[in-house]
Amino acid sequence: MKNNKFLLYPLVLLSLFGSSIIGYGQTQLRIEGGHLVQSGGSQMVLQNAEFINNGTFESTLGTVVMMGDGSDAQSAIGGDSLSTFYNLQINKSANGAQLQQNIQINNELVMTSGTLDLNGDTITLESVNGNIVNESESSRVIGPSGGMIQKTVTLNAPSNENPGNMGVSISSSQDLGSTLIQRAHPAQGLNGGNSIERSFTIAPTNNGDLGATLRFYYLDAELNSNTESDLGPWRQDSAFWYNPASANLDATNNYVQVDSIDFFSRWTLAASAPKLELNVLLAGPYDSSSGEMTDDLRSTDLVPTTEPYTALSYDYPASGGGEQIDARILVQTGSNAIVDWVFVELRSSADVSTVIAARAALLQKDGDVVDLDGRSNLSFPEIATTETPLISIRHRNHIGILAASTVDLSNGTPVLDFSTDPSLVEGGAAALLDFGDGNYGLISGDFDGDGQVQNTDRNALTSNLGTSGYLPGDIDLNGQVQNTDLQIKLTPNLGRGAQFSY
Questions:
Q1: What is the pTM of this model?
Q2: I want to staple 201 with a disulfide (CB 3.0 to 4.6 A). Which of 266, 293, 387, 465 is the partner?
């Protein structure tokens, strides 16, 4: 802190009403244990000066203006006490201003010129009137080292509402209730690179079955070397980032719009990841009368919200592992209901034993393999679109399959329907179970997940008969280890194995 010049208000109540004070040079406006009240439209202009609050600062109608061309330290807002501004204006011709404490804005944060660095601290916008004004390419809030802008607002059936003018517009026919919105600016490491320098966390009280639309605004100055035409939405559920369904990019008005959002979480923008549209059926829970699988595990609340494959020692060669889902996804019924988790691998075309990427994914009743939002095609954040891998799909008590041919990830979203076309699978129809109705499925009975149905699987399952829960011996996925698992789903497949090495 610079102490060569300062205005000091110790242990007093000083009121400013309809007047101005101006601090020049390397000045500090310091409040040490006192109470400074700014009201009646007064203005405090700090020219290359610091605002240091170690007491109480109350601004009911006035404006504090940070001006000048000095260093960040000469235009800092710091101290030990929370400072609450009515209006705060940043008007720096050079070097910007910097937070060194949390602050609250009750009316307007006015960005006239220069940047305001969050510097790891938080700006809270008052719930009704707190607003950001005039943010632009040349004058904006930044935060490469962390920090956030946040606002809590009630959103009931919102229609293109942009709370606090923070840059995220929300629409939904549902009442979201009290909703916390947080905007941050560190780039996220995604897709072998980085996201733009902006992200939003949206946390409504009512956060399910929203059918919502999100419009994510950004500034060109935040692109962080991303090519604007490549931008797509990324969301984070638990600790895992993924690239959900396609979105609409409006590069003229600088936003990406995502529709049909069931629940909100954390979002950013980056180059879109390679995606796969996959369909596969499991023989264990397959119901020939419907041509789909049963979802008994879901309906009895047995599908775990964290993937099971890490605990089973499946190999994640890069990112992935520990994927989690929001429990609200498991409310979905019908053909899109979740049956279980599956394990999807991208294998090297030069050496099929080499796994270059792996993901846990969700399997719907109709066989669609989807991402962690329960609806989008599966994305692979760490893989370049120049890859031409082989796809394998594995399940914890079924024999896995390997695609017969590589896929070109640079050409849109490859579609592989293993449930109806056995020629897509290495080994053809011999590597699948033919249901006799035009559909094929993964062979059931691999109790220990080693790629073979053997006597060891039968013996292990026999010792678990009569148990219930989310268990490897529950081959028909009804939540029970029964004679049907042993006699119908395992024993007829003894001696069968995968067409590739795990």
A1: 0.84
A2: 266
